[in-house]
Design brief:
alpha/beta; EC 4.2.1.3; Acoase/IPM_deHydtase_lsu_aba; Acnase/IPM_dHydase_lsu_aba_1/3; single chain; aconitate hydratase; Aconitase, domain 3; seven-stranded mixed barrel; 34% helix; iron; Aconitase, domain 4; Aconitase, Domain 2
């Protein structure tokens, strides 16, 4: 049998790097050509699902025989499958009908150029071929000391996220690699917290059918949930002894996962960096135990006097395809999804239409979106900088979703509310309580705020500088100070501001803090839309202008003047501490009349309320 070709994960990581370079933010992408036609729908879904990571609004493939095969595989009725094909052909949406389509812009990508890849650290588009890990300084020498974790210890290895666990080939490949490793007596390292969190219950059914569930469990990859887990920062607590060793030794610890995102601070507070990899590669790293391991060349173990490397346990394409064909069946999808959509009638007691708010709840609290900063007028005058930020600020920097630590602002608040540390849970689970979620604003310990200068250097962490006092403090204390002063705020940032998850609190948190505008070199589409929905004005510097060329250090005050219309040129007035006044043209990133209307209303909720009141009045 031939060695397996790269997985869909390898392909999508290469595409993510390429499409980021091609600057497709906000674009609608359609993949076509011989390579696209050859991809299974599972592979296509893997590519499309990572559209936010390369910045596109949508990533689409046309309807063809691969689509029909997938509909049959996933248990759709023959009548429905025939209707899909008939409709697509009749309306000109079938792939063959689109051969003469003219596109505004055409990019070319050669599938044969794809090799085994990872991405990291810190960004999904930071691709690195596994063959180049040593040359890139990721793999390297480390000391094996009995009873100690090594430098670069992989403390989390997780097969997770909808992108990769909705693709049967990826998961079956992981199971087969685990089986091969078990046969050779290879073991997961004891400090690795491993898990399998499929996006669908069908995964468990076809792993059972293939006899691979027990093989994965033997290496620690048992099913922990059918949901977002590690990819969204919810891997759960580490073993206390492992956590303490990381703290005591200030150990460089890492995570390897088959998720979409590996932004700084996202995966776990004690994983200093994270890497994205295919499911079978995740299993291999659980055996290796450190990111310093050269996964293509180093020895995973010795069996019967023979050195075992990755190539010795990686399954072939033929075997993966044969197991998928034998084990993935339509009845598995019917078994899971037909009951899910079945209509049930409940005849229990009627529920009161109004929710009974509980004042001590840390999970659901009456929202403040008609009060405080959101109730006041946005003057866009005299704004002080809450943060001055570099490129590639993600929504995980703005509002992390992972575990809440005791020494964080949210942790201190929850402790005061009487919760023990083991019940703090994650920021994401408290999103219905603004008093907890607000404290997540810029709470990422990996944040680099250029205003937080200590001893002449920018200090990493959830920090900022209160002005005009010039005092560096924790971000939440600064926010509280400015809220008490009713001080309007602005954020200054570099390129690609707001990458990552669509996280609502990344926009809610800054607005509730009093941020009225954000001036950046560029915005990610989803986050920019969320800012508009919260009544925050996105402003984009003109090409060639940035916080660096303007020498912004956070001591200034800022005004925005001009008539707001879609994509109008406004003026950002910078008033420096020495009295100098600088006027900078910026683009108003209210891109449509609808966005302008939402912003002027104060946000999407306020706009909805206006529409509702007008409708009821008439």
């Amino acid at each position: 049998m031939s060695q397996a070709s790269p997985t869909a994960t390898d392909l999508v990581l290469a595409l993510t790097e390429y499409l980021r370079q091609q600057k497709v933010v906000g674009a609608y992408l359609e993949f076509y050509g011989a390579g696209a036609s050859s991809l299974t729908l599972g592979d296509r879904a893997t590519i499309s699902n990572m559209a936010p990571e390369y910045g596109a609004t949508a990533a689409m493939f046309s309807i063809d025989s691969q689509t029909i095969d997938y509909l049959r595989l996933t248990g759709r009725e023959d009548e429905q499958v025939k209707l899909v094909e008939l409709y697509a052909r009749h309306t000109g949406l079938w792939s063959d009908s689109l051969s003469e389509v003219q596109y505004e812009r055409v990019l070319s990508f050669d599938l044969s150029s794809v090799v085994r890849n990872m991405a990291g650290p810190s960004n999904p588009h930071a691709r690195v071929a596994t063959a180049d890990l040593a040359a890139r300084g990721i793999a390297g020498q480390w000391d094996e000391v009995p009873g100690q974790m090594p430098d670069g210890a992989v403390i989390i290895a997780a097969i997770t996220s909808c992108t990769n666990t909705s693709n049967p080939r990826n998961v079956i490949a992981a199971g087969l690699l685990a089986r091969n490793a078990n046969r050779l007596g290879l073991l997961r390292k004891p400090w690795v917290k491993s898990s399998l969190a499929p996006g669908s219950k069908t995964v468990a059914l076809y792993l059972d059918a293939a006899g691979l569930t027990s093989e994965l469990e033997q290496l620690g990859f048992g099913v922990v949930a059918f949901a977002c887990t590690t990819c969204n920062g919810m891997s759960g607590a580490l073993d206390p002894l492992i956590q303490q060793e990381i703290i005591d030794r200030d150990l460089y610890a890492t995570a390897v996962l088959s998720g979409n995102r590996n932004f700084d601070g996202r995966i776990h507070p004690y994983a200093k960096q994270a890497f994205l990899a295919s499911p079978p590669l995740v299993v291999a790293y659980a055996i290796a135990g450190t990111i310093r391991f050269d996964i293509e060349n180093d020895v995973l173990g010795v069996a019967e006097g023979r050195e075992i490397r990755l190539k010795d346990i990686w399954p072939s394409d033929e075997e993966i395809d044969a197991v998928v064909q034998a084990s993935v069946k339509p009845e598995q999808f019917r078994q899971v999804y037909i009951p899910m959509f079945a209509i049930e009638e409940h005849s229990g007691p009627k529920v009161a239409p109004l929710y009974d708010w509980r004042p001590m709840s840390t999970y659901i609290r009456r929202p403040p979106y008609w009060e405080g900063a959101l109730a006041g007028e946005r003057t866009l005058k005299g704004m002080r900088a809450l943060a001055v930020l570099p490129d590639n600020i993600t929504t995980d920097h703005l509002s992390p979703s992972n575990a809440i630590m005791l020494d964080s602002a949210a942790g201190e608040y929850l402790a005061k509310m009487g919760l023990p540390e083991e019940d703090f849970n994650s920021y994401a689970t408290h999103r219905g309580d603004h008093l907890t979620a607000q404290r997540a604003t810029f709470a990422n310990p990996q944040l680099v705020n250029e205003m937080a200068v200590v001893d002449g250097k920018v200090k990493k962490g959830s920090l900022t500088r209160i002005e005009p006092e010039g005092v560096v403090t924790r971000m939440w204390e600064a926010i509280e100070t400015y809220m008490a002063r009713k001080q309007p705020l602005i954020i200054i940032a570099g390129a690609d501001y707001g990458q990552g998850s669509s996280r609502d609190w990344a926009a809610k948190g800054v607005r509730l803090a009093g941020v009225e505008a954000i001036a950046a070199e560029g915005f990610e589409r989803i986050h920019r839309t969320n800012l508009v929905g919260m009544g925050v004005l996105p402003l984009e510097f003109k090409p060639g202008t940035s916080r660096l060329t303007l020498g912004i250090d956070g001591s200034e005050t800022f005004d925005v003047i001009g008539q707001r219309t879609p994509r109008a040129t406004l003026t950002l007035v910078i008033q420096r501490r020495n009295g100098e006044r600088v006027e900078v043209p910026v683009t108003c990133r209210l891109d449509t009349a609808e966005e302008l209307s939402i912003y002027e209303a104060g946000g999407v909720l306020q706009r909805f309320a206006q529409d509702f009141l007008e409708a009821t009045a008439s």
